[in-house]
Amino acid sequence: MKILRKNFAIFAPRHSAAIFRLQPGLLKFAVAASFLALLSVSPLYGDTITVHQAGGGDHTTINDAMAAANPNVDVVEIIDSATYTESVVAKQGVDVVSTTSPTLVTASPGSPALTLNGSNVSGVTFSSSGKHLGGQAFVGALEITPNVGASTISGCTFVSNACGVMVDNVAYTSGDLVTITDCVFIDNVVGTLLSDSDGHNVVITESVFDSNGNSGSWASAPVNGACMLIAAFDSCEVSNSLFTNNETVQFPFAGFNSASCIVGATFGGLEGQLLTIDNI
Predict the structure, then answer these.
(1) How far is Cα 180 from Cα 127, in angstroms, rounded to an integer?
(2) Is the pLDDT of residue 2 over 80?
(3) DSSP state letters, 11-38
(4) Better-predicted residue by pLDDT, 51 or 242
(5) pTM, 2 dp
């Protein structure tokens, strides 16, 4: 028994040291494993963050939902048909979608109701938003931040805005593809204003422009119409779209019919570039 106790007393400390002593190589491995574990906390798949004004979703305002969204992965979905009075700046890569036809009105005429940052919007009505700043300058109900990624505007309605969609760009920089599809523009001073957009590729397709512009508003809004093209684009394509009952105070350029098609304030910048029009 004494021998056994003696052997146990000698063996136990040596055995414990062998288990708990962390070698330098193992230390490096442990640090690396911990770092990888921290990285795994970032979401690999996006969440859909819902908005319902009466409290039936994750948030009651679009801005609160956007604040909770993770850039480039999450989607903000409006799940009711309420009217939201907000000015929302989307985080980069965060889409705003709906299938319930909500209406978005800007909280301040000097700010867009929604600004996209390399993201998309679908199924939203924009109304009573935007502002004419004088001359050719407008604030759009919906604006696109340049040089942060492509954007698609689909299934949206723009009604009674100073300017429906403003596609602007930083001069002499490379822009991104902007697609406007299956949208309706009604009774806006300017339906879509494509301004100073060097480098942009703009596609407008399967959309309706009706009763935009005002031929009698020379003093208040001397630049107006269904779709204004100002300055240069890499390319601008308009196809399978209907233009009816639109007016403008500008003379028609390049043979365009100011009452029923597209009016451009300046077409000189498009010389030698691609502009295609194929409308019904």
Answers:
(1) 17
(2) no
(3) HHHHHHHHHH---HHHHHHHHHHHHHHH
(4) 51
(5) 0.76
